[in-house]
Write a structure and sequence with these properties.
The protein has 532 residues and is of the alpha/beta class. The protein is 25% helix and 23% strand.
Protein backbone atom coordinates (compact mmCIF):
# COMPACT_ATOMS: atom_id res chain seq x y z
CA UNK A 1 0.00 0.00 0.00
CA UNK A 2 1.40 3.35 -1.06
CA UNK A 3 0.51 6.85 0.09
CA UNK A 4 1.97 10.33 -0.22
CA UNK A 5 2.28 10.76 3.54
CA UNK A 6 2.33 8.18 6.32
CA UNK A 7 1.83 9.50 9.85
CA UNK A 8 2.82 7.28 12.79
CA UNK A 9 0.65 8.23 15.77
CA UNK A 10 -2.94 9.49 15.81
CA UNK A 11 -2.63 11.67 18.92
CA UNK A 12 -3.00 15.43 19.18
CA UNK A 13 -0.40 16.20 16.51
CA UNK A 14 -1.21 13.26 14.24
CA UNK A 15 -4.93 14.03 14.20
CA UNK A 16 -4.24 17.62 13.17
CA UNK A 17 -1.75 16.63 10.48
CA UNK A 18 -3.93 13.95 8.95
CA UNK A 19 -6.86 16.36 8.71
CA UNK A 20 -4.83 19.27 7.33
CA UNK A 21 -2.72 17.31 4.80
CA UNK A 22 -5.77 15.50 3.44
CA UNK A 23 -7.52 18.83 2.72
CA UNK A 24 -5.80 18.56 -0.66
CA UNK A 25 -7.86 15.92 -2.53
CA UNK A 26 -4.86 15.15 -4.71
CA UNK A 27 -2.80 14.04 -1.70
CA UNK A 28 -3.14 10.63 -0.08
CA UNK A 29 -2.58 10.30 3.66
CA UNK A 30 -2.37 7.24 5.89
CA UNK A 31 -2.60 7.64 9.67
CA UNK A 32 -1.44 4.82 11.95
CA UNK A 33 -2.80 4.56 15.51
CA UNK A 34 -2.17 1.74 17.98
CA UNK A 35 -5.38 2.44 19.91
CA UNK A 36 -9.02 2.73 18.93
CA UNK A 37 -11.30 5.33 17.40
CA UNK A 38 -11.44 7.62 20.45
CA UNK A 39 -15.22 7.98 20.30
CA UNK A 40 -16.51 6.02 23.30
CA UNK A 41 -18.35 7.37 26.32
CA UNK A 42 -15.36 7.28 28.68
CA UNK A 43 -13.57 9.72 26.39
CA UNK A 44 -16.55 11.91 25.61
CA UNK A 45 -17.50 12.39 29.29
CA UNK A 46 -14.98 14.90 30.73
CA UNK A 47 -15.25 13.67 34.32
CA UNK A 48 -14.13 10.21 33.24
CA UNK A 49 -10.57 11.51 33.12
CA UNK A 50 -10.40 10.14 36.67
CA UNK A 51 -11.12 6.63 35.41
CA UNK A 52 -8.70 6.72 32.47
CA UNK A 53 -5.64 8.53 33.83
CA UNK A 54 -5.02 5.96 36.57
CA UNK A 55 -4.36 3.17 34.12
CA UNK A 56 -6.22 0.74 36.37
CA UNK A 57 -7.30 -0.88 34.14
CA UNK A 58 -5.28 0.68 31.27
CA UNK A 59 -8.21 2.07 29.28
CA UNK A 60 -6.98 4.20 26.35
CA UNK A 61 -3.71 4.51 28.26
CA UNK A 62 -0.16 3.29 27.65
CA UNK A 63 0.33 3.36 31.44
CA UNK A 64 4.11 3.72 31.31
CA UNK A 65 6.36 3.58 34.37
CA UNK A 66 9.70 5.28 34.82
CA UNK A 67 12.99 3.94 36.04
CA UNK A 68 13.53 4.40 39.80
CA UNK A 69 14.02 8.11 40.44
CA UNK A 70 16.91 8.93 42.77
CA UNK A 71 15.40 12.34 43.54
CA UNK A 72 12.12 10.71 44.58
CA UNK A 73 13.49 8.22 47.10
CA UNK A 74 14.02 5.61 44.39
CA UNK A 75 10.32 5.47 43.49
CA UNK A 76 9.20 4.48 40.01
CA UNK A 77 7.01 7.22 38.58
CA UNK A 78 3.85 6.71 36.55
CA UNK A 79 3.47 8.20 33.06
CA UNK A 80 -0.02 7.92 31.58
CA UNK A 81 -0.21 8.65 27.85
CA UNK A 82 -3.27 8.44 25.62
CA UNK A 83 -3.77 5.42 23.36
CA UNK A 84 -6.59 6.22 20.94
CA UNK A 85 -7.25 8.71 18.17
CA UNK A 86 -6.69 12.02 19.91
CA UNK A 87 -3.87 10.60 22.04
CA UNK A 88 -3.46 12.28 25.39
CA UNK A 89 -6.10 14.87 24.45
CA UNK A 90 -8.54 11.95 24.82
CA UNK A 91 -7.64 11.35 28.48
CA UNK A 92 -6.43 14.72 29.78
CA UNK A 93 -8.19 17.38 31.85
CA UNK A 94 -8.92 19.44 28.69
CA UNK A 95 -7.12 22.53 30.04
CA UNK A 96 -6.30 25.13 27.40
CA UNK A 97 -3.10 26.99 28.21
CA UNK A 98 -0.27 28.02 25.92
CA UNK A 99 2.54 28.95 28.29
CA UNK A 100 4.20 32.34 28.34
CA UNK A 101 4.86 34.16 25.02
CA UNK A 102 8.55 34.48 25.88
CA UNK A 103 8.81 30.66 25.98
CA UNK A 104 8.59 30.62 22.20
CA UNK A 105 11.04 33.49 21.79
CA UNK A 106 13.43 31.35 23.85
CA UNK A 107 12.87 28.45 21.42
CA UNK A 108 13.98 30.74 18.61
CA UNK A 109 16.98 31.91 20.64
CA UNK A 110 17.95 28.25 21.12
CA UNK A 111 18.04 27.74 17.35
CA UNK A 112 14.42 26.88 16.53
CA UNK A 113 14.13 29.71 14.03
CA UNK A 114 10.59 30.50 12.96
CA UNK A 115 9.10 29.37 16.28
CA UNK A 116 9.14 32.74 18.10
CA UNK A 117 5.90 34.03 19.60
CA UNK A 118 4.88 36.24 16.71
CA UNK A 119 5.42 33.33 14.32
CA UNK A 120 3.43 30.76 16.32
CA UNK A 121 0.54 32.99 17.47
CA UNK A 122 -1.26 32.76 14.08
CA UNK A 123 -1.31 28.98 14.41
CA UNK A 124 -2.73 29.09 17.93
CA UNK A 125 -5.46 31.35 16.57
CA UNK A 126 -6.01 29.14 13.51
CA UNK A 127 -6.62 26.11 15.72
CA UNK A 128 -8.85 27.83 18.24
CA UNK A 129 -12.63 28.13 18.19
CA UNK A 130 -12.97 30.16 21.38
CA UNK A 131 -16.50 30.73 22.66
CA UNK A 132 -15.49 34.22 23.79
CA UNK A 133 -14.96 35.26 20.17
CA UNK A 134 -12.03 36.50 18.14
CA UNK A 135 -9.39 38.92 19.41
CA UNK A 136 -5.75 39.67 18.62
CA UNK A 137 -4.77 36.75 20.88
CA UNK A 138 -7.64 34.31 20.22
CA UNK A 139 -9.32 32.63 17.30
CA UNK A 140 -13.06 31.98 17.04
CA UNK A 141 -13.42 29.78 13.95
CA UNK A 142 -10.84 27.02 14.42
CA UNK A 143 -11.72 23.33 14.85
CA UNK A 144 -10.65 23.10 18.50
CA UNK A 145 -13.58 24.13 20.67
CA UNK A 146 -12.38 26.23 23.62
CA UNK A 147 -14.45 27.97 26.23
CA UNK A 148 -15.21 28.73 29.84
CA UNK A 149 -16.30 25.90 32.08
CA UNK A 150 -20.05 25.59 32.06
CA UNK A 151 -20.64 24.39 35.63
CA UNK A 152 -17.67 24.92 37.99
CA UNK A 153 -18.05 23.88 41.63
CA UNK A 154 -18.45 26.63 44.25
CA UNK A 155 -15.19 25.45 45.85
CA UNK A 156 -13.31 26.36 42.67
CA UNK A 157 -14.48 29.95 42.93
CA UNK A 158 -13.47 29.89 46.61
CA UNK A 159 -10.03 28.71 45.49
CA UNK A 160 -9.64 31.84 43.34
CA UNK A 161 -10.55 33.96 46.38
CA UNK A 162 -8.06 31.99 48.51
CA UNK A 163 -5.29 32.70 46.01
CA UNK A 164 -6.09 36.39 46.37
CA UNK A 165 -5.50 36.01 50.10
CA UNK A 166 -1.90 34.98 49.34
CA UNK A 167 -1.43 37.91 46.94
CA UNK A 168 -2.11 36.12 43.65
CA UNK A 169 -4.87 38.19 42.03
CA UNK A 170 -7.68 36.90 39.86
CA UNK A 171 -7.32 36.71 36.07
CA UNK A 172 -9.92 35.90 33.47
CA UNK A 173 -7.49 34.64 30.81
CA UNK A 174 -4.28 32.68 31.37
CA UNK A 175 -3.61 33.16 27.64
CA UNK A 176 -4.11 36.92 27.72
CA UNK A 177 -1.66 39.77 27.88
CA UNK A 178 -0.56 38.76 31.41
CA UNK A 179 -0.22 35.13 32.47
CA UNK A 180 0.10 35.79 36.23
CA UNK A 181 -2.96 35.20 38.36
CA UNK A 182 -5.58 32.73 39.55
CA UNK A 183 -8.80 31.76 37.83
CA UNK A 184 -10.85 29.02 36.24
CA UNK A 185 -9.25 27.26 33.29
CA UNK A 186 -10.72 27.45 29.84
CA UNK A 187 -11.25 23.95 28.48
CA UNK A 188 -11.35 22.12 25.15
CA UNK A 189 -15.00 21.16 25.25
CA UNK A 190 -18.10 21.39 23.07
CA UNK A 191 -20.21 24.21 24.47
CA UNK A 192 -23.34 24.08 22.30
CA UNK A 193 -25.29 21.83 19.99
CA UNK A 194 -25.82 18.09 20.21
CA UNK A 195 -22.38 17.51 21.76
CA UNK A 196 -22.64 20.18 24.44
CA UNK A 197 -20.63 19.21 27.51
CA UNK A 198 -18.50 16.59 25.72
CA UNK A 199 -14.71 16.55 25.50
CA UNK A 200 -13.32 18.10 22.33
CA UNK A 201 -10.19 15.99 21.79
CA UNK A 202 -7.91 16.70 18.85
CA UNK A 203 -9.55 13.78 17.06
CA UNK A 204 -13.07 15.06 17.75
CA UNK A 205 -12.04 18.52 16.57
CA UNK A 206 -10.02 17.68 13.48
CA UNK A 207 -10.15 14.04 12.48
CA UNK A 208 -13.56 12.48 13.19
CA UNK A 209 -15.40 15.03 10.98
CA UNK A 210 -13.26 14.13 7.91
CA UNK A 211 -12.84 10.36 8.30
CA UNK A 212 -14.89 9.79 5.14
CA UNK A 213 -12.40 11.54 2.86
CA UNK A 214 -11.44 9.18 0.04
CA UNK A 215 -7.80 10.27 0.20
CA UNK A 216 -7.50 9.61 3.96
CA UNK A 217 -6.86 6.14 5.37
CA UNK A 218 -6.95 5.71 9.15
CA UNK A 219 -5.66 2.40 10.50
CA UNK A 220 -6.51 1.96 14.18
CA UNK A 221 -5.28 -0.92 16.36
CA UNK A 222 -2.14 -0.82 14.21
CA UNK A 223 1.33 -0.60 15.73
CA UNK A 224 4.26 1.06 13.95
CA UNK A 225 7.30 -1.23 14.17
CA UNK A 226 10.07 0.26 12.07
CA UNK A 227 10.87 3.01 9.58
CA UNK A 228 12.18 1.70 6.27
CA UNK A 229 14.96 3.62 4.54
CA UNK A 230 16.70 3.65 1.19
CA UNK A 231 20.08 5.09 2.05
CA UNK A 232 19.27 8.33 3.86
CA UNK A 233 15.70 8.58 2.57
CA UNK A 234 12.72 7.30 4.57
CA UNK A 235 10.51 5.19 2.33
CA UNK A 236 7.79 3.87 4.61
CA UNK A 237 6.79 1.98 7.73
CA UNK A 238 6.58 -1.62 8.81
CA UNK A 239 3.43 -1.95 10.91
CA UNK A 240 1.67 -4.77 12.74
CA UNK A 241 -2.07 -5.03 12.18
CA UNK A 242 -4.11 -8.01 13.33
CA UNK A 243 -0.96 -10.03 14.03
CA UNK A 244 0.21 -9.44 10.45
CA UNK A 245 3.16 -7.33 9.32
CA UNK A 246 2.42 -4.81 6.57
CA UNK A 247 4.85 -2.63 4.63
CA UNK A 248 3.39 0.79 3.88
CA UNK A 249 5.36 2.98 1.48
CA UNK A 250 5.45 6.77 1.35
CA UNK A 251 5.96 8.66 -1.90
CA UNK A 252 6.70 11.94 -0.12
CA UNK A 253 7.31 11.67 3.62
CA UNK A 254 7.08 9.58 6.76
CA UNK A 255 6.03 11.68 9.76
CA UNK A 256 6.41 10.56 13.37
CA UNK A 257 3.76 11.90 15.74
CA UNK A 258 4.00 9.28 18.46
CA UNK A 259 4.87 11.68 21.27
CA UNK A 260 7.84 12.34 23.54
CA UNK A 261 8.16 8.61 24.29
CA UNK A 262 6.94 6.95 21.10
CA UNK A 263 8.75 9.01 18.45
CA UNK A 264 12.31 8.57 19.81
CA UNK A 265 11.57 4.91 20.51
CA UNK A 266 10.52 4.36 16.89
CA UNK A 267 13.63 6.18 15.62
CA UNK A 268 15.88 3.96 17.73
CA UNK A 269 14.07 0.75 16.75
CA UNK A 270 14.79 1.79 13.16
CA UNK A 271 18.52 2.23 13.73
CA UNK A 272 18.43 6.01 14.14
CA UNK A 273 19.87 7.23 17.42
CA UNK A 274 22.80 6.97 19.85
CA UNK A 275 25.25 4.32 18.67
CA UNK A 276 25.88 2.84 22.12
CA UNK A 277 22.15 2.54 22.81
CA UNK A 278 21.45 0.81 19.50
CA UNK A 279 24.37 -1.62 19.76
CA UNK A 280 23.39 -2.54 23.32
CA UNK A 281 20.17 -3.97 21.90
CA UNK A 282 21.63 -5.52 18.76
CA UNK A 283 20.14 -2.90 16.42
CA UNK A 284 22.29 -2.02 13.38
CA UNK A 285 23.24 1.66 13.31
CA UNK A 286 21.67 3.12 10.18
CA UNK A 287 22.11 6.77 11.12
CA UNK A 288 23.95 7.83 14.26
CA UNK A 289 22.09 10.64 16.01
CA UNK A 290 23.38 10.96 19.52
CA UNK A 291 20.66 13.07 21.09
CA UNK A 292 17.62 11.01 20.18
CA UNK A 293 15.89 10.40 23.51
CA UNK A 294 17.94 13.02 25.37
CA UNK A 295 16.69 16.39 26.72
CA UNK A 296 13.61 14.80 28.36
CA UNK A 297 11.72 17.35 30.49
CA UNK A 298 8.49 17.24 32.44
CA UNK A 299 6.56 19.21 35.04
CA UNK A 300 7.15 17.69 38.47
CA UNK A 301 4.06 18.09 40.62
CA UNK A 302 3.40 17.97 44.37
CA UNK A 303 -0.16 17.31 45.52
CA UNK A 304 -1.78 18.46 48.76
CA UNK A 305 -5.18 16.87 49.43
CA UNK A 306 -7.80 17.50 52.09
CA UNK A 307 -11.03 15.85 53.06
CA UNK A 308 -14.04 18.06 52.42
CA UNK A 309 -16.60 19.00 55.05
CA UNK A 310 -19.12 19.69 52.29
CA UNK A 311 -20.39 17.13 49.77
CA UNK A 312 -20.39 19.38 46.67
CA UNK A 313 -17.11 17.82 45.47
CA UNK A 314 -16.20 14.32 44.25
CA UNK A 315 -16.21 11.46 46.73
CA UNK A 316 -16.12 7.69 46.38
CA UNK A 317 -18.24 6.91 49.44
CA UNK A 318 -21.75 5.51 48.90
CA UNK A 319 -23.43 8.93 48.89
CA UNK A 320 -20.74 10.34 46.63
CA UNK A 321 -21.08 7.48 44.17
CA UNK A 322 -24.85 7.97 44.10
CA UNK A 323 -24.31 11.67 43.34
CA UNK A 324 -21.92 10.71 40.53
CA UNK A 325 -24.43 8.25 39.06
CA UNK A 326 -27.15 10.89 39.06
CA UNK A 327 -24.73 13.42 37.59
CA UNK A 328 -23.87 10.98 34.81
CA UNK A 329 -27.52 10.50 33.87
CA UNK A 330 -28.07 14.26 33.97
CA UNK A 331 -25.07 14.82 31.69
CA UNK A 332 -26.28 12.22 29.18
CA UNK A 333 -29.59 14.08 28.88
CA UNK A 334 -28.39 17.69 29.00
CA UNK A 335 -24.57 17.86 28.69
CA UNK A 336 -24.59 19.73 31.98
CA UNK A 337 -23.43 19.33 35.56
CA UNK A 338 -20.57 17.56 37.31
CA UNK A 339 -19.86 15.13 34.48
CA UNK A 340 -18.99 18.09 32.26
CA UNK A 341 -16.26 19.12 34.73
CA UNK A 342 -12.56 18.73 33.87
CA UNK A 343 -12.07 18.00 37.59
CA UNK A 344 -9.05 20.37 37.59
CA UNK A 345 -11.31 23.42 37.53
CA UNK A 346 -9.17 26.12 39.11
CA UNK A 347 -5.62 27.19 38.39
CA UNK A 348 -2.93 29.74 39.03
CA UNK A 349 0.36 30.91 37.57
CA UNK A 350 2.67 32.72 39.96
CA UNK A 351 6.32 33.53 40.71
CA UNK A 352 8.40 31.77 43.32
CA UNK A 353 10.27 35.01 44.09
CA UNK A 354 9.52 38.61 43.10
CA UNK A 355 12.60 38.80 40.86
CA UNK A 356 11.41 36.03 38.53
CA UNK A 357 10.79 37.47 35.04
CA UNK A 358 7.60 35.41 34.57
CA UNK A 359 5.56 32.79 36.45
CA UNK A 360 7.63 29.72 37.27
CA UNK A 361 4.96 27.81 39.24
CA UNK A 362 1.48 26.55 38.38
CA UNK A 363 -1.40 25.18 40.47
CA UNK A 364 -4.13 22.81 39.35
CA UNK A 365 -7.04 22.85 41.82
CA UNK A 366 -8.99 19.57 41.66
CA UNK A 367 -12.48 18.94 43.04
CA UNK A 368 -11.54 15.48 44.33
CA UNK A 369 -8.77 13.66 46.17
CA UNK A 370 -5.78 12.94 43.93
CA UNK A 371 -3.42 10.33 45.34
CA UNK A 372 -0.89 8.57 43.11
CA UNK A 373 -2.73 9.57 39.93
CA UNK A 374 -6.01 8.19 41.28
CA UNK A 375 -4.29 4.83 41.70
CA UNK A 376 -4.81 5.00 45.45
CA UNK A 377 -8.47 5.63 46.23
CA UNK A 378 -10.04 7.29 49.26
CA UNK A 379 -13.72 7.06 50.15
CA UNK A 380 -14.02 10.57 51.56
CA UNK A 381 -15.23 13.68 49.77
CA UNK A 382 -12.23 15.89 49.17
CA UNK A 383 -10.19 18.31 47.07
CA UNK A 384 -6.57 18.73 46.01
CA UNK A 385 -4.13 21.44 45.01
CA UNK A 386 -1.30 20.34 42.72
CA UNK A 387 1.70 22.66 42.38
CA UNK A 388 4.40 22.18 39.73
CA UNK A 389 7.67 23.74 38.57
CA UNK A 390 7.11 25.21 35.12
CA UNK A 391 10.63 25.31 33.68
CA UNK A 392 12.65 22.57 35.36
CA UNK A 393 16.43 22.58 35.18
CA UNK A 394 16.50 18.78 35.57
CA UNK A 395 16.82 16.61 32.46
CA UNK A 396 16.10 12.97 31.85
CA UNK A 397 16.42 10.63 28.91
CA UNK A 398 14.58 7.89 27.09
CA UNK A 399 16.15 4.66 25.89
CA UNK A 400 15.13 1.19 24.80
CA UNK A 401 14.29 -1.68 27.09
CA UNK A 402 14.82 -4.08 24.18
CA UNK A 403 14.66 -4.27 20.40
CA UNK A 404 11.07 -5.54 20.63
CA UNK A 405 8.62 -2.81 19.48
CA UNK A 406 6.03 -4.26 21.85
CA UNK A 407 8.12 -3.45 24.91
CA UNK A 408 7.73 -0.10 26.66
CA UNK A 409 10.73 2.24 26.39
CA UNK A 410 13.12 2.85 29.29
CA UNK A 411 12.09 6.19 30.80
CA UNK A 412 14.32 8.11 33.19
CA UNK A 413 12.74 11.47 34.00
CA UNK A 414 15.70 12.71 36.06
CA UNK A 415 13.33 14.42 38.48
CA UNK A 416 15.09 16.73 41.01
CA UNK A 417 18.50 15.89 39.54
CA UNK A 418 19.12 19.64 39.58
CA UNK A 419 18.71 21.06 43.13
CA UNK A 420 17.23 24.30 41.80
CA UNK A 421 13.97 22.46 41.05
CA UNK A 422 13.56 21.32 44.65
CA UNK A 423 14.07 24.85 45.96
CA UNK A 424 11.48 26.24 43.52
CA UNK A 425 8.96 23.49 44.28
CA UNK A 426 9.33 24.02 48.02
CA UNK A 427 8.55 27.73 47.62
CA UNK A 428 5.51 26.82 45.55
CA UNK A 429 4.38 24.26 48.10
CA UNK A 430 4.67 26.81 50.93
CA UNK A 431 2.40 29.25 49.12
CA UNK A 432 -0.03 26.45 48.25
CA UNK A 433 -0.18 25.36 51.88
CA UNK A 434 -0.87 28.93 52.96
CA UNK A 435 -3.60 29.28 50.33
CA UNK A 436 -5.31 26.11 51.53
CA UNK A 437 -5.57 27.64 55.02
CA UNK A 438 -7.44 30.68 53.71
CA UNK A 439 -10.82 31.50 55.34
CA UNK A 440 -12.32 31.22 51.85
CA UNK A 441 -11.85 27.44 51.95
CA UNK A 442 -12.86 26.98 55.60
CA UNK A 443 -16.36 25.64 54.76
CA UNK A 444 -14.75 22.72 52.92
CA UNK A 445 -11.41 22.21 54.66
CA UNK A 446 -11.15 18.92 56.55
CA UNK A 447 -8.08 16.97 57.57
CA UNK A 448 -5.04 16.92 55.33
CA UNK A 449 -3.64 13.73 53.87
CA UNK A 450 0.09 13.11 54.43
CA UNK A 451 0.80 16.13 56.66
CA UNK A 452 4.40 16.94 57.58
CA UNK A 453 5.89 18.65 60.61
CA UNK A 454 6.12 22.08 58.97
CA UNK A 455 9.91 22.24 58.80
CA UNK A 456 11.90 22.55 55.58
CA UNK A 457 13.20 19.04 56.15
CA UNK A 458 9.67 17.77 56.61
CA UNK A 459 8.45 19.44 53.42
CA UNK A 460 11.42 18.14 51.42
CA UNK A 461 10.73 14.64 52.69
CA UNK A 462 7.07 14.95 51.70
CA UNK A 463 8.00 16.09 48.19
CA UNK A 464 10.49 13.29 47.68
CA UNK A 465 7.91 10.78 48.94
CA UNK A 466 4.91 11.95 46.94
CA UNK A 467 5.78 14.21 43.97
CA UNK A 468 5.41 12.94 40.41
CA UNK A 469 4.50 14.07 36.90
CA UNK A 470 1.61 16.32 35.92
CA UNK A 471 1.79 14.67 32.44
CA UNK A 472 3.80 17.02 30.21
CA UNK A 473 6.87 15.12 28.86
CA UNK A 474 8.64 16.86 25.96
CA UNK A 475 11.99 17.41 24.30
CA UNK A 476 13.33 14.00 23.24
CA UNK A 477 13.64 14.93 19.53
CA UNK A 478 14.80 18.50 20.12
CA UNK A 479 14.63 20.86 17.17
CA UNK A 480 17.38 23.37 16.54
CA UNK A 481 19.88 24.74 14.05
CA UNK A 482 22.95 23.08 15.56
CA UNK A 483 24.50 19.82 14.41
CA UNK A 484 23.49 18.10 17.66
CA UNK A 485 19.77 18.79 17.24
CA UNK A 486 17.61 15.76 16.44
CA UNK A 487 15.31 17.76 14.18
CA UNK A 488 15.76 20.93 12.17
CA UNK A 489 13.49 23.99 12.56
CA UNK A 490 11.32 22.61 9.74
CA UNK A 491 11.05 19.39 11.80
CA UNK A 492 13.09 17.15 9.48
CA UNK A 493 15.24 14.51 11.16
CA UNK A 494 18.80 15.79 10.97
CA UNK A 495 20.77 14.18 8.14
CA UNK A 496 17.85 12.23 6.64
CA UNK A 497 15.39 12.92 3.87
CA UNK A 498 11.60 12.51 3.79
CA UNK A 499 11.40 11.96 7.57
CA UNK A 500 9.99 14.43 10.08
CA UNK A 501 8.91 14.46 13.71
CA UNK A 502 5.82 16.50 14.60
CA UNK A 503 4.80 16.35 18.27
CA UNK A 504 5.85 17.57 21.72
CA UNK A 505 9.18 15.74 21.46
CA UNK A 506 10.56 18.54 19.23
CA UNK A 507 10.20 21.24 21.91
CA UNK A 508 13.69 22.51 22.77
CA UNK A 509 12.51 23.58 26.22
CA UNK A 510 9.36 22.85 28.20
CA UNK A 511 6.88 25.70 28.06
CA UNK A 512 5.37 27.27 31.17
CA UNK A 513 1.94 25.65 31.02
CA UNK A 514 -0.04 22.63 29.85
CA UNK A 515 1.31 21.17 26.63
CA UNK A 516 -1.74 20.09 24.61
CA UNK A 517 -2.51 23.42 22.95
CA UNK A 518 1.18 23.97 22.03
CA UNK A 519 1.34 20.47 20.51
CA UNK A 520 -1.68 21.22 18.35
CA UNK A 521 -0.05 24.51 17.34
CA UNK A 522 3.13 22.65 16.33
CA UNK A 523 1.08 20.37 14.07
CA UNK A 524 -0.81 23.29 12.52
CA UNK A 525 2.45 25.00 11.61
CA UNK A 526 4.00 21.72 10.47
CA UNK A 527 1.13 21.19 8.02
CA UNK A 528 2.05 24.49 6.40
CA UNK A 529 5.76 23.63 6.35
CA UNK A 530 5.08 20.23 4.79
CA UNK A 531 2.63 21.59 2.24
CA UNK A 532 5.05 24.15 0.82
Amino acid sequence: MEYDYIIAGGGSAGSVLAARLSEDPGTTVCLIESGGQGRDLLIRAPAMVAAMVSGRPPIHNWSYHTMPQAGLNGRRGFQPRGRALGGSSAINAMLYTRGHPSDYDEWADLGASGWDWQSVLPYFRKAEGNARGASPLHGATGPLQVGDQLYPRPISRAFVQAMGDVQVPETKDFNGTVQDGAGLYQVTQFHHGARKGERCSAAAAYLHPVMNRRNLTVLTHTQAQKITLDGTRATGLIVERGWKALHLTARREVILSAGAFGSPQLLMLSGIGPEDELRAHGIPVIHALENVGKNLQDHLDFTISHQSLRPDVVGLNPKGLLRLAKAGLHWRKTGEGLFASPMAEGGAFFRSTPDQPKPDLQIHFVVGIVDQHMRKLHLADGFSANVCVLRPASRGQLGLASSNPGHAPRIDMGFLSDPKDLATLMRGARLTEAMLQSPALAPWRGKRYYPHDGSDAGLEAAIRSHADTIYHPVGTCRMGSDADAVTTPDLRVNGLQSLRVVDASVMPRLIGGNTNAPTIMIAERAADLIGR
